[in-house]
Amino acid sequence: MSGAAAKVANDRAVAEGLGTNKNPMKYLNQDYEEIRAQCLASKTLFKDDQFPACASALGYNELGPNSPKIKGIVWKRPSEICPSPHFIVDGATRGDIRQGALGDCWLLAAIASLTLDQNILAQVVPENQSFEKGYAGIFHFQFWQYGVWVDVVVDDRLPTKDGNLVFVHSAEGDEFWSALMEKAYAKLCGSYEALTGGSTIEAMEDFTGGISEQYDLKKAPADLYQIIQKALKAESLLGCSIDITNAYETEDITSRKLVKGHAYSVTGAEEVLYKGKTVQLVRVRNPWGEVEWTGPWSDDSSEWNYIDPKVRAALDKRAEDGEFWMAYTDWVHEYSRLDICNLTPNTLTSKDQHKWNITLFNGSWIRGSTAGGCQNYPATFWTNPQFRIKLDEPDNDHDGGTNDPCCTAIVGLMQKNRRRQKKLGEDLLTIGFAIYKIPKELQDQTDVHVNKDFFQRTPSAARSDTFINMREVSKRVKLPVGDYLIVPSTFEPLKPGDFCLRIFSEKAAESLEVGDVAKANPYEPQVSDKDVTDDFKNIFQKLSGDKGEVTAKDIQTILNRLLSKRTDLKSKGFTLATCREMISLMDMDGIGTLNLVEFKTLWMKIQKYVEIFLKTDKDKSGTMDAHEMRNALQEAGFSLNNNILNGIAHRYADTDLTINFDSFISCMIRLETAFKMFKELDKSNSGKIDFTLPEWMCATLI
User: 140, 169, 262, 398: which one is catalytic?
Assistant: First the structure.
């Protein structure tokens, strides 16, 4: 319950504006300014009890407590490592980043790329931090995490061996911003070891909040050059690299001075007129600041002599600055892959309006509820979370004709917190998504999930290239104007996990989660004394005796007696707690018992639920599959969102994901009671109610 309450509180805080890069959340509720002030006042140096300087912060396996690799490690503050430590000297540069004994080169490459854009770097590495003025042994960094920015504090105790930093360090040894940033990211991911292995684009997303695209240049789409131009115009971060076939090729230099297995930045894309023909050029930067391309269009090549002098003056650079031009055809041939990190509007610093519009949804795949697997599993695929997006404004430069305008969008599906779960043996899930065009007859139906029949008769309009075990899969799509349904899923059903789904569109787009509502219209039999037969009155008389009322114990006795005679309903027997909930639902006078009419009404409800249960139990097993619960709830008049459905699966399904009859009845009664209580208290039909704490306690202790 506390976890659910925390999630609601977090969602409300985000809705109220917390979690932007200007107003980040305090990670683990640690406030940098507050802690720093306390340390300065007490003249002590900060010790982080949330990420203590001990073996658990190092790792869980290769760097676990009993691993020989951590023997001899001593945690030291920078002042114990060198006589005059500095946070940043003369600006943060690539030279400040030297890899240590940790396989996190992917992270360090992203940090190095950040140094090329000081504005973005300043968002991740807040300014005014030092080892001199106001030093208290505490530093902080800001990272994007699944839709929100978080501010992460760390103390400056760093792992050393023989007096030297074990992990990332600066070339000179006296600059510590990169080592402390690595520690903050390790804290966010659970440990240093959790940083082993990854993709540079993953870290770039966490440093910018952007969405990634990855292109295999051997399979480059026909319009990739236009995609690059658009991305540069939108201030996206672009990187390219040459694949290696084995570790020995790392940083090998080709005959034309390109470095294998090395991260380059793409910084420009221009077309020039060369000998009467248009040539597409790409500008590339080597972060080393040296070792440049020597082929056509390089700094000293003859091609520059045949273009307009003004164009040459604007484009040509001859300094050994690591930046150079290449023909696009050569670039595609020489390099292996292109990564694009498209930035959000609040990350960008320019006033130019070439910006993406962003939609973000958070969701979960829950066993027995929303973990439906891919299209290969049609019986459960439809139970996955579903999201609608309306693309009704075509791109300014769309490819289609006037009768077929197209909209560009980038869809990204990211699974959450998998690095933190590595120590629990959890690996990345295999994920993907499919996009469907919504026909006109379904465009107004947003309260309930699109059903199985729709997916069996409707082909997808687009989909992720493949299901893959990466943190994020993304796809740039061009779709005709219209309404679309996006279904994110794991490859196999019953694989639990949390995700965020992001849609970057060139134009504003309306979007919503399908079925993000809670409504109820349950069966309400209207019963009076004259509706009760003599036979039923005799049954009631035997139960109630002289008191003329039945108790929860009486109801438990009669229901379990009747259940024992049914072979088509599997049950462990109604508990006294469930029968008390039945009393609470039906007891209009509040005395804790039911009179004849109230009991008859309850009896008719139970008969209705028996009918629904048997109808939904397709295989006649006497139990209900947890996925079938959606159909049963709809039959019973309930429209519930995924969060509520997930809670039902957690509470009422057995470990084999089946729901027996008494659990089903208990769920129905509790839902009816909750909706009835809310309706009674929401006199103005505002959709909101207020409780004092005592009222809340009384209402929930049913």
Answer: 262
Q: What is the pLDDT of residues 73-99, one digit of tens each?
A: 999 999 999 999 999 988 877 667 888
If you ran DSSP here, which 8-state letter would residue 468 be given? B
CB contact set of 416 (below 8 Å; sequence gap of 6+): 146, 497, 498, 499, 500
286 given a catalytic annotation: yes
In this structure, the dihedral spanned by the alpha carbons of residues 477, 481, 483 and 485, taken in order and rounded to 10 degrees, is: -10
Under 8 Å between Cβ of 410 and 447:
no
Backbone φ/ψ region at 157: left (φ over 0), alpha (ψ -120 to 50), beta: beta
Q: Which residues of 344-368 are buried (b: 16+ CB within 10 A; e: fewer)?
A: beebbeeeeeebbbbbbbbbbbbbb
Nearest to 204 by CA among 233, 232, 236, 230: 236
Residue 140 known to be catalytic = no
Phi and psi at residue 409, in whole multiples of 5°?
A: -145, 150
Q: Between helices 105-114 and 200-208, what is the axis angle to 10°?
A: 40
Domains assigned to the chain: 21-208 (no CATH), 211-342 (3.90.70.10), 357-515 (2.60.120.380), 529-700 (1.10.238.10)
Cα–chain center distance at 266 = 28
Task: Give tens-digit pLDDT for 305-341.
Answer: 999 999 998 887 654 567 899 999 999 999 999 989 8
Structure tokens, 647: 């809670």
What pLDDT, in 10s, does the model give residues 276-302? 999 999 998 876 667 789 999 998 899
Could you say which DSSP state residue 307 is in? S
Q: Which residues of 540-555 are buried (b: 16+ CB within 10 A; e: fewer)?
A: beebbeeeebbbbebb
> What Cα–Cα distance (Å) separates residue 537 from each residue in 95, 204, 453, 607, 609?
89, 72, 46, 17, 22
CA–CA dist 264, 284 (Å, integer): 7
Rounded Cα distance between 633 and 668, Å, is 8
Catalytic annotation on 449? no
Where would I find the beta strands (DSSP E) of 232-300?
A: 237-241, 264-274, 277-285
Phi, psi angle pair for 575, to nearest 5°: -80, 160
CA neighbor of 208 nearest in space, from 405, 21, 482: 21
148-155/25-26 β-pairing = parallel
pLDDT tens-digit series, residues 151-184: 999 999 999 999 999 999 888 889 999 999 999 9
Q: How many whole angstroms separate alpha carbon 322 and alpha carbon 337? A: 19
What per-residue string of b and e applies to 160-185 under the rule 16 or more CB within 10 Å gives b? beeeebbbbbbeeebbbbbbbbbbbb
CB of 368 closer than 8 Å to CB of 247:
no
Q: Which residues of 653-676 are buried (b: 16+ CB within 10 A; e: fewer)?
A: beeebbbbbbbbbbbbbbbbbbbe
Question: Residues 6 or more apart from 363 whose CB is under 8 A from it?
Answer: 370, 385, 488, 498, 499, 500, 501, 513, 642
- Catalytically annotated residue among 39, 140, 286, 627: 286
> 22: burial class by Cβ within 10 Å (0-12, 13-18, 19+)?
exposed
Q: What angle do CA 51, 54, 60 make, to 5 degrees?
A: 85
Paired tokens of 85: 């430590």
Instruction: Tell me if 668 sits within 8 A of 634, measured CB to CB.
Output: no
Q: What confidence tier does 683 reach under pLDDT thresholds 50, 70, 90?
A: confident
